[in-house]
Amino acid sequence: MSALISLITSADLEGTSALQSALLALNNEHALELSWADSARLRHLVAAAFFAERAGFADAFLIAFDQDADYDSPNFLWFRSRYSRFVYVDRVVTAPQARGRGLARLLYGRLIDRATETGHVRIVCEVNSNPPNPGSEALHRSLGFSPVGEALLSTGKTVKYLELRIRRENRDHMQP
User: For the chain, how many structural domains are there in total?
Assistant: First the structure.
């Protein structure tokens, strides 16, 4: 599979760039699962990120933070209160027309490589239980994530907290 993978940088999101518009549109089409963002929020997320990459122009993207990030998400803070070192996947999304090509799996593989290079041993995230997000749950299960908790958020959403312990063999499961 060939997909052009690129970093997402703060410079990419300045002004009214076409990339900023496309990433915001993709994010906000899935705001129920990801949380809504405006251009200032997206710029902040990318600036604070440990990892921010996209596939294609805006076919898919993944933004993740390490434990030291300046980030106020209650889900991120849940992990920070329990683990001294981790990489937190804040959002991973694939455009409907790009699904089935393994883009999320490819981005996860790159994230695991980066996390391993920097000495991390766990990647964490949350997946909505209510409202359900069966696609994300299936993806994370197939990647080897395991449940480590759950919460009812102030928004009324219920989430499952998941963890992937990084081992070299995890990388083999990321190939599309």
Answer: 1
